[in-house]
Amino acid sequence: MTKIDDRYGPLQLFIAGEWLGTEGRVTEPVLNPATGEPVGLLPHASAADLDRAAAAAEAAFASWRRVPAYDRAMILRKAATLLRERADHIGRRMTLEQGKPFAEARLEALISADIFDYTADEGRRTYGRIVPARVAGMRWMVTREPVGPVAAFTPWNFPAVIPARKISAALATGCTMVIKPSEETPASVIELARALDDAGLPKGVLNVVCGVPAEVSERLIAAPEIRKITFTGSTGVGQQLAVLAAKAGVKRATMELGGHAPVMIFEDADVDAAVQVLAGAKFRNAGQICIAPTRFYIHEAVHDRFVEGFAAAAEKLKVGDGMDPATTMGPLANPRRISAMQGLVEDALNHGAGLRLGGEALGNRGNFFAPTILTDVPDTARIMNEEPFGPVAVTARFQSLDEVIHQANRLPFGLASYAFTRDTATAQALADRVEAGMLGINNVMINMPETPFGGVKQSGYGSEGGTEGMDAYLVTKTVSQS
Prior knowledge:
Elements: E1 13-15, E2 18-20, E3 27-31, E4 38-43, H1 47-64, H2 69-85, H3 87-98, H4 102-123, E5 129-131, E6 139-146, E7 150-153, H5 161-173, E8 177-180, H6 187-198, E9 206-208, H7 213-222, E10 228-232, H8 235-247, E11 252-256, E12 261-265, H9 271-283, E13 293-299, H10 303-315, H11 335-350, E14 354-357, E15 361-362, E16 368-369, E17 372-375, E18 392-398, H12 401-409, E19 413-414, E20 416-420, H13 424-433, E21 438-441, E22 456-457, E23 460-461, H14 468-471, E24 474-481
Parallel strand pairs: 7-8, 7-10, 8-9, 10-11, 12-13, 12-20, 13-18, 17-18, 20-21
Antiparallel strand pairs: 1-2, 3-4, 5-6, 6-24, 11-23, 14-17, 15-16, 19-22
Helix pairs in contact: 2-4, 2-5, 2-6, 3-4, 4-5, 7-8, 9-10
């Protein structure tokens, strides 16, 4: 029998307003990545559960879409207040299932509350317009209406913030949702749903299901009740789900997929400031962030100075269990990530890269990997072409603006990018020419509730966050009246 960690608590499905436990259902253990030991038992939704969740979302949509935006916002705001009150509890559950330091997990709970608040207000501003008619006596109106029940699929790296974006935008615009969180980190989404339930969300508006990912996604996407899907995860899985959405009836899809963020550090950059900003951004969440700075293209005049400063900052990190207050970098999410890091580092070294720091797994328990810096990595190495999604930074030297922009745009991904320069002409050229959904110049603050989050090329399509994040959940209707 799987022992449940008292700090973690039981896991449940949430369907049609009912909390459903493990009784009579297939289950799987949720593991603590810091120890490899189970902390809870997750029930899987049966085919009947999935069908019921989709039907509940459709039934609730008929009334939820008619609830005034003001009243929908009040529920989201009340849920946000509850999330803030429960931030410690949510943070503990998140750290136990995902591994990030408790301070980061608690902050993620608070950011989720901010997202709920911001989106609640934006839901009250999904305006239509009146178009001047060409014919006397006619009125042309453009209205925006909720698309309908949504199926959402979210990953394990930010188990509260990413679902919060999707849930809040859907609910604020009048849509309903069935969400499947990662089976590795289900508790965080369950806590979001519990806050909304306690805030008075009508039954069936939000449903939470878990199970074998391929089986759940195929059944939900094919369900006739579902009119839109939203997915955050790898490019490969996103491509598969986009095909399923097209085959299921050309259903709307928002895809937030992988990246491989370039960082361009120019000769005139404030190198010391860049070191401090980028070290924090790179190793936060053990590098398991789709917008983490990863490919460091550094002007040859400052390359060695930056690397030494960056290594010194990385060496100060304390790797350990996220529940330890002294820990500043937790474990990787699962053993697969350790194998991936080892393979990428070995390949880079075989291609002639230099190892400045780290490069190895740590300890004999849990999924710990040392902060790693590889220098002068050639384009032929896998890590220059595949997103590492871990605590590994790679560097290469450049000489000219055109050269580094070419390198930044070389890959088929275009999610996040960063640059450090004090020259306004250079900054403008980067803004005009870098192919990415988000670009941070002299900072890494590209992801806020008020700003759109999304990529180009194989990093996906559609945005979450900002006013643009509401558009994915709305359809446009033209009304001609005479």
